Amino acid sequence: MVDITAKLGRLKLDNPTVLASGILGVTKASLKYVASNGAGAVTMKSVTVEPRAGHHAPIILTYEGGMLNSVGYSNQGIKEAKKEFISLKDVGAPVIASITAGSKKDFAFLAEQVNEMGFAAVEAVISCPHTPGFGTMAGQGTPDSTREITAAVRDKTKLPLFVKLSPSVQGIGEVAKAAEDAGADAITAINTGGPGMIIDVKTGKPILGGTVGGLSGDALRPIAVRCVYDIYKSVRIPIIGTGGVMTGEHAAQMILAGASAVGIGTAVYYRGADVFRKVCDELQGVMKEAGYKNIYGMRGMAHEE
Ligand SMILES: Cc1cc2nc3c(=O)[nH]c(=O)nc-3n(C[C@H](O)[C@H](O)[C@H](O)COP(=O)(O)O)c2cc1C
What we know:
- The chain is an alpha/beta fold and 305 residues long.
- The protein has one domain: Aldolase class I (TIM Barrel, Alpha-Beta Barrel).
- Helices cover 32% and strands 19% of the residues.
- It is built from ten helices and 16 strands.
- The chain has helices spanning 28-36, 77-84, 104-114, 143-154, 172-181, 221-234, 248-257, 267-271, 275-290, 295-298, and strands at 6-8, 11-13, 17-19, 41-43, 60-63, 66-69, 95-99, 121-125, 161-165, 186-189, 193-196, 199-200, 205-206, 213-216, 239-242, 261-264.
- An eight-stranded parallel barrel has the order 3-4-7-8-9-10-15-16, surrounded by seven helices.
- Strand 12 and strand 13 (205-206) form a beta hairpin.
- The radius of gyration is 18 Å and the shape is globular.
- 56% of the residues are buried.
- Bound molecules: flavin mononucleotide.
- The site of flavin mononucleotide has 28 residues, from strand 6 and strand 16.
């Protein structure tokens, strides 16, 4: 029998699949639904200090290689989120808070706010590629800004702290190391890539409301696997490998590259909410065939000579 229990520092998961932020994470009920479909942990949609409408429609486009989204952090703001995300024990899986902001002061404020809400961990997102004032558009991908934001959040919370990185940086291993040095307990890699653009040839204009959007799904996967591989060489803390994971075989690639758990977002649109159970079943099949008894014995094996 293959054991697929996973560990993210002191957080124990029944299996390595984690609902990525931004997909079905706007309400407690939707998180509960995803947990009932087999996710090992679930992440809420990123919350900001103030409510945000986000970009205007269309905000999601699929194309041959995957998906582009320009959601632009539409969310209810922390005040309303505190009313929505209560009594999280009955969700059925550990719930990860996702916070994002344009300044370290706002990150610190959000960290304080989510502290007493019953979350199992907090994820600081410094990596959105398409929202002005946030993530890479606010210059947050550098080692220095990563160190500063991580330290500011660390200062305000004792919860396990995950820092979510962008693939659109030079030397992602160095950025991950800055997060680790400043007190991160895990790295989530990666956020959407790009940004990218699709033009409607009939109107001659970009289709997305936000003009550009973050790239996810199949096209992102080889980049995500490479990022996890690079980060594994640079840090000792666990990695949540995220980006284009659709199947158990893809999850296995992430673990072999160095991930301790595997984030799943876009696959929910393609395979349904029970993609978590499907990926776990498929992963067990892949592990059995390759002779791996558990996740720990498989993690990082792509690095072995
Ligand atoms: C529609 C959509 C909304 C997203 N919103 C967020 C968000 O609010 N916060 C965040 O950290 N990541 C967000 N992401 C990024 C995902 O969490 C994930 O990192 C990325 O899509 C790569 O994984 P995937 O290919 O499995 O989707 C979003 C992705 C999509 C497709």
